[in-house]
Design goal:
The structure holds 2 protein chains of 2 kinds. By secondary structure, chain A is an alpha/beta fold. Chain A is built from 10 helices and 14 strands. The longest helix of chain A has about 35 residues. Chain A is elongated. The N terminus of chain A is likely disordered. By secondary structure, chain B is mainly alpha-helical. In chain B, about 75% of the residues lie in helices and about 0% in strands. Chain B starts with 6 loop residues before the first helix and ends with a helix. The mean pLDDT of chain B is about 90. The chains are: A alpha/beta, B mainly alpha. The interface between A and B is large, with 50 and 57 residues.
Chain lengths: ~350, ~350
């Protein structure tokens, strides 16, 4: 009977030991990954930045995190990326709270909801954490700075430039948009029309088709455009779904290389069409630059170089100097043009 | 052995089967979990930077409050060998009702009461299907998990409502003056005492254990098994509705997909706290320690920079280990009882 009792006691001990081991290994892995500079967290003058994307395992955010990490290593601070596996606002809150507890210098976040994480961000700011949003903003009063990837004007301008260049600044073009009531798409198209009328008199915009951001619908609408307008020289698709579907249609049709296609797309979607010559160039912002700029802006906030007031300027390493605009936002710049020469550098 | 009751012999027989009192108090699953909780807290205090700050306690209580709340009725349900998988969906539904109510211009307390009533109705649907239709609760609540979530997402679409009166959202994140303890711990404590008294000090509570151990025997001894279960599901729905209101205000966000997956965290914490999934065994102090243990562990690991997937692995290992050790201990106990029985049998045979 004694031996039985001892066995039972042993099981309890073993369970406790196992958990202790887990806790200790958890802590041990922290020590090795963070290096020595973040120990204790009392040296608040150090630049310690935590990046919280919408979710982890998303190639777009992996690219922006890579940019931020590069910037922080140039500055000489400590960097950590945390985040939920699914893009829900409530799951971002606990990571914001953890950052506040750790007393990090700055938190860079892409918000899953403009309102839901506001209170948590306010709490983090009240204990001294500088909060910078990027890619997707919160309400302006919940953060110190927003790093804006592109303006509507910039997006409209780059698409007009690309298509007019590709068709030789004359002939018929069409637009393949998302849905007819998509606010951002319509704003861009309006600006594109104004720009065409003002500076490209020989280019005629014959139709605006809507693919509803559905791959098959966009594919069919591309076919219809090409059949309706035999003289069509180019298509602009300011949506990542539309441009990929249009490229897929062009690739296998007689129009490949004859009809130009450009718009907003991601490198991974468009790679094969750029490589086989279906598409010459398209635009989007560079998420790596976006993360890089966000990290430099956060460091400038932490050091007190800027406060987020309009007109503040700061240096962003290889990207040059930036100025804080209205609503405490910083514009990354013109959209980035992807073509055969640079598309191999990107993976998102 | 004569037919007369030999008290001395009886006591000796009993003590041969049972552990001494100190062991029954100190070496239980509940005390093991409580001990483990203290161990994690002590280790984290020394090993994890910033863990020993008041902010940690505040955030921890806030985060696990919905789990703590719903774990109370869940414990009672699992003790009767049933389960309620629809609780997180009721949280989502109640959240949406709160949001829509406020959007329609209702004062928040009224919207909250309606949301809790909707949760109660949802719970009574579960209860009715289990009791009066006689379906297994696992099947019923898997169905209503999808049903309630579907209604919640359907009502609000993919949008969110976030214009709640500041007074109430501030209240959910207020601390008890002068302490780092969030005010929201108070309703939990009240409910915990109510459920604790109900489970451990009333005939109703004893009947739950009886149902979990042997439903037929419980029915024959005069317990209304069906009606008892019905009320448990109603309570679970009401508490989940309340948790939904709280969840909405804490995150200032009413969404149909709020608290998705929370049911699994609740059930994991309840089982870790020593409640047997086969019914008839468990106690509330263990469950509360189980919730605190999972919460503290993941909070400490997050602070230490461990990624969420590894935290999930560690929590999973802990849970599996606790279930395996429970089965192992049960197996040891049956072996031990059998061994005592054989020994006594031999002794009596040689006496005779």
């Amino acid at each position: 009977m004694f031996t039985l009792k001892r066995k039972r006691f042993g099981v309890g001990l073993a369970a406790i030991a196992a958990t202790t081991a887990l806790v200790f290994t958890g802590c041990a892995s922290d020590g090795s990954s963070d290096g020595g500079s973040s120990d204790g967290g009392d040296s608040s003058a150090d630049v310690s930045i935590t990046m919280l994307p919408k979710n982890l395992g998303n190639p777009y955010f992996d690219t922006s995190t890579g940019g931020a990490e590069e910037a922080v290593s140039e500055i000489g601070g400590t960097f950590e990326e945390v985040g939920p596996s699914e893009a829900s606002p409530t799951s971002q809150v606990q990571y914001i709270q953890t950052a506040a507890q750790q007393g990090v210098g700055g938190l860079i976040v892409s918000a899953n909801d403009p309102e839901a994480i506001c209170d948590a961000l306010d709490e983090a700011r009240s204990v001294g954490v500088k909060v910078v949003t990027f890619d997707s903003d919160t309400n302006p009063e919940c953060r110190d700075l927003f790093i804006n990837q592109a303006t509507a004007e910039g997006i409209a301008q780059v698409q007009v430039d690309l298509i007019t260049e590709q068709i030789g600044d004359e002939g018929q073009i069409a637009v393949l948009s998302a849905s007819a009531n998509a606010t951002n798409q319509n704003a861009w198209i309006e600006m594109m029309e104004a720009e065409l009328a003002a500076n490209h008199p020989n280019v005629e915009l014959v139709e605006i088709a809507y693919g509803d951001d559905d791959d098959q619908t966009s594919f069919d609408k591309t076919a219809a455009l090409l059949q309706t307008y035999p003289e069509l020289k180019g298509i602009v698709s300011p949506t990542t779904v539309g441009i990929a579907a249009a490229a897929r249609y062009l690739q296998t049709s007689e129009y490949k290389g004859e009809v130009a296609l450009t718009g907003l797309g991601t490198p991974n979607q468009m790679r094969e069409y750029v490589e086989d010559g279906t598409v010459t160039a398209f635009a989007l912002w560079n998420p790596a630059d976006l993360g890089y700029l966000a990290a430099y802006a956060t460091a400038a906030l932490i050091s007190g170089e800027i406060t987020g007031a309009e007109g503040d300027t700061f240096d962003a390493g290889t990207l040059g100097s930036y100025e804080v605009g209205a609503d405490a936002s910083v514009l990354l710049g013109d959209p980035y043009v992807f073509d055969a020469d640079n598309i191999g550098d990107f993976d998102f | 052995m004569t037919s007369a009751i030999d008290t001395e012999h009886g006591r000796r027989t009993y003590s041969a089967y049972a552990h001494p009192l100190w062991r029954r108090l100190l070496v239980t699953r509940e005390s093991a979990i409580i001990g483990l909780l203290f161990l994690v807290v002590i280790v984290a205090t020394f090993a994890v930077p910033n863990f020993d700050s008041p902010l940690t306690l505040t955030f921890l209580i806030r985060e696990i409050a919905p789990i703590l709340l719903i774990a109370l009725p869940m414990t009672l349900i699992i003790i009767t060998e049933e389960i309620d998988l629809s609780v997180a969906s009721i949280v989502g539904l109640s959240s949406v009702i709160t949001g829509l109510g406020v959007q329609a211009g209702w004062p928040l307390p009224f919207a909250a009461v309606v949301a809790i009533l909707v949760g109660t109705v949802a719970g009574s649907i579960n209860g009715a299907l289990v009791t009066f239709v006689g379906l297994p609760s696992l099947a019923v609540t898997i169905g209503t998990l999808a049903l309630f979530r579907g209604i919640a997402v359907g009502l609000l679409g993919t949008t969110a409502i976030s214009d709640f009166p500041e007074f109430w959202t501030d209240l959910t994140r207020m601390n008890i003056p002068g302490t780092p303890m969030p005010l929201i711990i108070v309703p939990f404590l009240v409910l915990a005492i109510i459920f604790g008294v109900l489970l451990h000090f009333t005939p109703f509570g004893r009947s739950l254990y009886a149902i979990g151990l042997n439903k037929e025997a419980a029915a024959f001894s005069g317990i209304n098994v069906g009606l008892t279960k019905f009320w448990l599901f109603v309570m679970s729905g009401a508490v989940s509705g309340y948790a939904g209101v709280y969840f909405t205000l804490l995150y200032n966000n009413a969404r149909g997909d709020n608290a998705t997956g929370l049911e699994l965290q609740i059930i994991a914490a309840v089982l870790l706290g020593g409640v047997s999934i086969f019914g008839g065994r468990g106690a509330l102090p263990g469950v509360i320690a189980g919730v605190l243990l999972i919460g503290t562990l993941s909070s400490a690991l997050r602070l230490a920079g461990v990624t969420s997937d590894i935290i999930n692995v560690i929590t999973g290992v802990l849970l599996v280990a606790s279930v395996v050790s429970a089965s192992f201990l049960a197996w040891l106990r049956t072996k031990r009882v059998a061994a005592i029985g054989r020994k006594k049998g031999r002794a009596e045979a040689s006496d005779g």
